[in-house]
Amino acid sequence: MLKPLPGGSMVQADSLFVNYDRTAVLWDVTFSVPPGVLLGIVGPNGAGKSTLLKTLLGLVRPLSGNVFLNTGKIGYVPQRETVDWDFPITVLEVVLMGRYPSLRWWQRIRAADREAALHALTQVGMAELADRQIGELSGGQQQKLFLARALVQQPDVFFLDEPFAGIDLAAEKDIVQLLKQLKNQGKTIVVVHHDLPTVSEYFDWVLLLNTRLIACGPVTEVFHAENLRKTYGKTSPLFEEAVGLSAKQQSGL
Amino acid sequence: MTLAEYFTDPILRAPSIGCMLMCMTAGVLGVVLFLQKKLLLSETVSHAAYPGALVGLIALALMGPEMEPYAFAAVLVGAFVFAWAGLKTVQFLENRFRIHADAALGFSLALFFGLGVLLTSWVQAVFPLWSNQAETLLFGQAATLTDGHLWVYGSLTAIVLTFVCLCFRPLQTLLFDRGSSAVERAVQLLLLLAIVVGIRSAGIILVAGMLIAPAVAARALARSLGPMFVWAAVFGGLSGFLGNVLTTHVRLPTGPAIVLVSTGFALLSLLVSPSRGVAFRFVRKYRFHLRCREENLLKELWKKGRMVRKGWVGFRLKQQGWVVRDGQWLHLTEDGKTKAAGIVRLHRLWELYLTEQLGVEAVRVHRSAEEMEHILTPELEERLTKVLANPEKDPHAQPIPPRRP
Q: What is the least distance, in Å, from the CA of A135 to any CA of chain B?
């Protein structure tokens, strides 16, 4: 996935098609995101937002199409409910796991790793919780924990899947502030988001998605009523039927 | 018999050490299954191994009675192949036909164990000399283990422990993030080996218990993965040893004895685990209840000035220096007055918060405040004071005692 990209873009997707069994989840999605933007992926439930994120990360294999990332250093914050919060592990240990990819499998955790993990926890304001069990954290703290784990990898691109789902407002503001700081440091941040009123406040770029791509660009240019109607309004029944039929044919079901 | 003899006596040592090693291995691998939430897989795999072990026996029986010394090896090979087949059947059903995990496990277990039962009756009818062997497979028989078997158990334990130590971080990633399929395959291979080898001491029916019980016990005590492995190994080893001791004293088959001991450990640690244990939770609940009663009495004294009260709660308050006894009357000390005022303050702050901020009617707030006065922390009090702008009167126009300077 490491290819130099034309036009200096950081994340790029080229005609992505993704099916789950018989339903088309992504249909011909093409876009490109420059470095140093804070991008919100917005669309109705079941629009394929999380799937798009996972396809960009390489966790879901597209039926056809390509993904290009201009870096190998990626930080991923998964959806909160996909994590096993009953797992016997402490806050610090979870953050340390962010350093594992840079260690060989037999190597022990070094003092430098521990230092970096503690620093990441300080950045999200959770240093004093380092020895807690992850199950004892509040929703907002759980989200910040995984953000700290992404931070410790020092990535160029961050992918966050619904980071604001089910957390309190104070934690949400903290996270947004941190994301903006990262953006100012030149990082690219891709966030799956579901709350329309906050889009212009939180992001400078937005990607509107409903199985097919509606628009992708600076908030000031593409985040307007016409595009929102296209994203959230009833899609053409003919389009849905045709896409469904195509998915059915390809899966052989 | 002293305990040391179980490790030195030439006849006793192989069964006791063998059971210990086998159960230690099973305990460690049980942790992996436990955290993957796939514990029942061990049950299915061990039952799937049964017909395999019998096929191994039958193959030897066909070659003649002089082959009996090799039965151990034949059973191992047969069991391993079938256990692997059982595992693959489950995976195939789940991935290929999208059958729910429970159904796939049940189907595979029934299929293979049914086949095993069929073969057992066949062995009994055709090779009566070998049917004893077939029976020990079901419940395990440790007493006939020899020093030779010890090498097998010893090496397997060494492999598993080395693997877990060396690959601790990849394992942690696999279990927490569901990563790395290479580690997953290695774990499966070790699991099959552990189950197949463990059949000799615990038996087909109960070998799964040997994987499950130590992990359950360990989870109750451990806060993180490393200690959980250690606890599981300790519980596994101990129950293997004690189960074997039990077998030699009372005439019990080895498998049930070991599983009884390890379930005992599991129950015990569920009971006494500091964070999750039933016992400690009971103690904590009792303490909280007692504190509520103490604080309620303090409050009453604060309002009435003095009271006649005998009993445990009054005695405790005296011990802690909040009250003094003057004849039959209880009085608050200066410290007690401050403390009681603090409780009343929390009560009234909460009442005001409910009426002012949440719009609850003033007549309905008392009951909630009766509870919250025991629960609010200084930090929450601070926030309440700020939100309500340091109020002086509660909704019933009673004065709110000022904050302690």
A: 10
Helix H or strand E segment including B199: helix B181-202
- Contact present, B49 and B204 (Cβ < 8 Å): yes
**pLDDT confidence band for A37 (50 / 70 / 90):** very high
Query: Tell me, what's the pLDDT at A5?
Result: 56
Contacting residues of A for B222, CB less than 8 Å apart? 88
Please return the burial class of B50, using the count of CB atoms within 10 Å of its CB with bins 0-12, 13-18 and 19+. Answer: buried
B217-246 residues touching A, CB cutoff 8 A: 219, 222-225, 227-228
Span B65-96, pLDDT tens digits: 777 777 778 888 999 999 999 999 999 998 88
> Distances from the Cα of A233 to the Cαs of A14, A147, A214, A216, A224, in angstroms?
25, 33, 12, 18, 13
Q: What is the pLDDT of residue A253?
A: 62
A87-140 tens-digit pLDDT: 999 999 999 999 888 887 777 888 889 999 999 999 999 999 999 999 889 889
Query: B residues 14-43 near A, CB within 8 Å?
Result: 35
Nearest neighbour of B224 by CB, restricted to A84, A90, A105: A90
When pLDDT is averaged across residues B301-321 and rounded to a whole number, the result is 84
Per-residue pLDDT reduced to its tens digit, B354-398? 888 888 888 888 888 888 888 888 888 888 888 888 888 888 888
Distance of CA B163 to the CA centre of its chain: 23
Q: Do B222 and A97 touch (CB under 8 A)?
A: no
pLDDT of residue A2: 43
DSSP class of residue A127? Answer: G
> Are the Cβ atoms of A93 and B166 closer than 8 angstroms?
no
The answer to whether B224 contacts A94, with C-beta atoms less than 8 Å apart, is no
Tokens 């191992």, located at residue: B76
- The residue-averaged pLDDT of B275-297 equals 87
Rounded Cα–Cα distance for residues B62 and B42 (Å): 31
The span from the CA of B344 to the CA of A43, in Å, is 51
B222:A88 CB<8 A: yes
- Please report the residues numbered 56 through 95 in chain A whose beta carbons come closer than 8 angstroms to any beta carbon of chain B: 84, 87-90, 93-94
Q: d(Cα B180, Cα B92) in Å, to the nearest integer?
A: 20
pTM comes to: 0.79
Mutating which of A89, A109, A113 best tests the B interface, going by the most B Cβ atoms within 10 A?
A89
CA distance A82 to chain B (A): 9
Q: Which two tokens stand for residue A128?
A: 């004093």
Q: Which of A88, A105, A109 sits opposite B224 (nearest CB)?
A: A88
Contacts 24+ apart (CB under 8 A), B280-289: B288/B374
Quick check: B61 and B52 in contact, CB under 8 A? no
Residue in chain B nearest A86 by alpha carbon: B35
Tell me the percentage of chain A whose pLDDT exceeds 70.
93
- Residue among A88, A97, A105 minimizing CB distance to B219: A88
Mean pLDDT of B114-140: 84
